[in-house]
Predict the structure of Acetyltransferase.
Amino acid sequence: MHFKKLTDLTSTTELTQLLHNAYAADVNLGIHFGASTITEQQVRDHILNTPTFVLQTDDGTIAATASVRLPWSDNPGPFTLPHIGWVATNPLYQHQGFAKQIITQVIAHFVKDELHAPAVSLGTAVEHPWLQDFYHSIGFQTIDTVRKFKDHQTAYLISIFDDHRTHQIDDVYLKKILPQTILNER
């Protein structure tokens, strides 16, 4: 697999289809993430405005994707931190560890190496039967639950790389909900 950041729009159609196919399983659970019905134009706009990453096979097929919403962008995450979103695996490549691999590579090569961020967040549906457990298994901790949508609650999770710098972030919401135990555990 090859990890890369999308820098042009040539993969828009394939990425849109991947998102629809990957998120169809969530729709079957009654959870309607926005990516399940995203349009090609929205995917184009997202690629242009949000760092978007893929794992590609040797023949160029996208096996998995994830993107990073930036705190200073028009579409920030809930905290003044990079926020991982659009985590999706092509159904033909599921159950092979590619979601874990792309998240790990996005964190290592973009969030840490390029952004030098002290932590990263992501969100998922509380009602999803296994996603929170998956994110916990790769180092994220749930720090808040909010109701943003009628069909599900959103759990916000965080992975901290530098306690001191994370604690120094000037973000009222983050300081309010970040349990001291997370900071003291490290």
